[in-house]
Design a protein that fits this description.
By secondary structure, the protein is α+β, with helices and mostly antiparallel strands. It is built from seven helices and twelve strands. The strands form four sheets. A five-stranded antiparallel beta sheet has the order 9-3-5-6-10. It has a three-stranded antiparallel beta sheet with strand order 2-1-4, with no helix packed on it. It starts with 10 loop residues before the first strand and ends in an 11-residue tail after the last helix.
Length: 232
């Protein structure tokens, strides 16, 4: 069931990984999918970009240890294929409900989030024990399941996350904030606006510090605790 207030085009645009193994994407025009039983079609408005998206694009899952150092890649069984749509930090509006969604907690026009785990079976032993991320048939956004680097995405109705009215979509799309991490952006002062728009809650102008003082400023900004992680 669609809403008259949500216009659904016959085609839309998506950024696909056109050359897995390399840092390369291509904008393609695709037919808008129909949500199946238990699914919803979401018109995406925002998407975060995670370092794991880069790892999947570069097919780090196909790189043998020790070069494949991150434990996440050891859990992914196969490299992606050309045409994969990446992304797993999306926010949008439900545009259409598929069949058998009468009891879904979301409805047309509601803002929802799409995350790393896009769907589970709900009936295998891990799911029944509350460990749904270990589902035997888990669907992962951006890895053999179309992700959030596109204008529309189909997702499991009972697995999308309703977004509270008091939370901005651009904030909801950032997984780092969702994990309660405070982001400190470090760059030239001319880029402060861009860095903050990308999710940084604090900014340090690298041109105003030397190697020693910039470290001291990070510690000071992080309440004398230092940084939990660094992304370059």
């Amino acid at each position: 069931m669609a809403s008259a207030d949500v216009e659904i085009p016959k085609q839309y645009k998506a950024a696909v990984y056109d050359a897995p193994g390399k840092i390369s994407t291509k904008i393609e025009t695709l037919d808008t999918p129909e949500p199946g039983p238990g699914e919803v079609l979401i018109k995406l408005t925002h998407s975060g970009v995670c370092h794991s998206d880069l790892g999947i694009m570069e097919n780090s899952v196909a790189t043998p240890p020790p070069l494949r150092a991150h434990p996440l890649w050891r859990a992914l069984p196969a490299p992606i294929q050309p045409g994969q749509i990446g992304g797993h930090e999306g926010v949008g509006v439900v545009a259409k409900m598929g069949p058998a969604t009468e009891r879904a907690v979301v409805k047309v026009g509601q803002r929802v989030g799409v995350k790393w785990v896009a769907g589970t079976c709900g009936s295998c032993p891990p799911c029944l024990e509350g460990h749904d991320a270990l589902c035997h048939t888990v669907k992962i956004s951006g890895y053999y399941t179309p992700g959030t680097f596109q204008q529309y995405v189909v997702s499991q109705a009972d697995y999308v996350t309703p977004i509270p009215d008091n939370l901005k979509s651009e904030d909801a799309a950032l997984a780092s904030r969702g994990m309660a991490m405070r982001v400190i952006g470090i760059d030239a002062g001319s880029k402060e606006k861009l860095v903050r728009e990308c999710g940084a809650g604090h900014f340090i102008d690298v041109t105003k510090h030397d190697d020693k003082s910039i470290g001291e400023e990070v510690v000071k900004t992080a309440d004398s605790l230092g940084a939990s992680a660094v992304i370059v």
